[in-house]
Amino acid sequence: QQPVQSPQAVILREGEDAVINCSSSKALYSVHWYRQKHGEAPVFLMILLKGGEQKGHEKISASFNEKKQQSSLYLTASQLSYSGTYFCGTDLSGNTPLVFGKGTRLSVIA
Amino acid sequence: EAQVTQNPRYLITVTGKKLTVTCSQNMNHEYMSWYRQDPGLGLRQIYYSMNVEVTDKGDVPEGYKVSRKEKRNFPLILESPSPNQTSLYFCASSRTGGTGELFFGEGSRLTVL
Question: What is the pLDDT of residues A2-57, one digit of tens each?
Fold first, then answer.
């Protein structure tokens, strides 16, 4: 039931773009995205509810494709501060606990 | 300041010595949860609570107990810790269940020798 994230890790230079994917084998009600910097707690980025909406947070945006049961996180013109591990969390019904993927480690270098 | 507070932040203990990790939130959240984080495995849920006196098992509940006697507190109890429970533990809370933004505590790093 754990969602599958890809890639597992990615290295970018400042200014480059990246896409992180999150796929589920089951129909989803919502997808959550969190970022965890090294040595810190995960921090909420955004929630996407079923309906295929796209959301944005600074230069980070995400989409949710219900039919494909997947979500993608888009990081545009990456900055050093974007480095960290990104987790997606999936919710099946709106009243079930989040199940997190294993994470994608993003490293942005100068 | 809205926060989730965990204690202790770091603990080294020995096999079999009972310990409790406390978690307290000041946001009047109904939902609270415990996760463990291990390299390469992501965040795995141990137990969660939808409200006072209501607790449920997550994905990896073996060896752990919890209680939710009051809304703000959700302690994690290891009755007889074993080395495979060495991990980084996070407590989190949200206003609602699965659809709410989760606020995480700073984490408790536990080592069981």
Answer: 999 999 999 999 999 999 999 999 988 899 999 999 999 999 999 898 776 666 66
Tell me if A97 and B98 make a contact (CB, 8 A cut-off): yes
Token pair 């415990």 is found at B34
Listing DSSP states for B53-106 in one string gives TEEEE-S--TT-EE--SSTTB--EEESS--GGG-EEEEEEEESSSTTSPPEE--
Q: Please answer yes or no on whether A96 and B42 come within 8 Å at the CB atom.
A: no
Neighbours of B4 (CB within 10 A): 23
Task: Calculate the alpha carbon distances from A10 to A18, A83, B18, B75 in Å.
Answer: 8, 10, 40, 36
Per DSSP, what are the bridge partners of residue A44?
Answer: A34
Choose, out of A100, A102, A105, the residue to mutate when testing the contact with B (most B CBs < 10 Å): A100
Residue B32: alpha-carbon gap to chain centroid: 8
Prior bond of A42 cis (ω within 30°) = no
Which pLDDT tens digit goes with each residue over B30-69?
999 999 999 989 999 999 999 999 999 999 999 999 999 9
CA B95 – CA B105 distance, rounded (Å): 15
Task: Locate B64 and state its tokens.
Answer: 């752990």
Give the dihedral sign, CA B58/B72/B104/A33. Answer: positive
CB A7 within 8 A of CB A23: no
d(CA A32, CA B59): 18
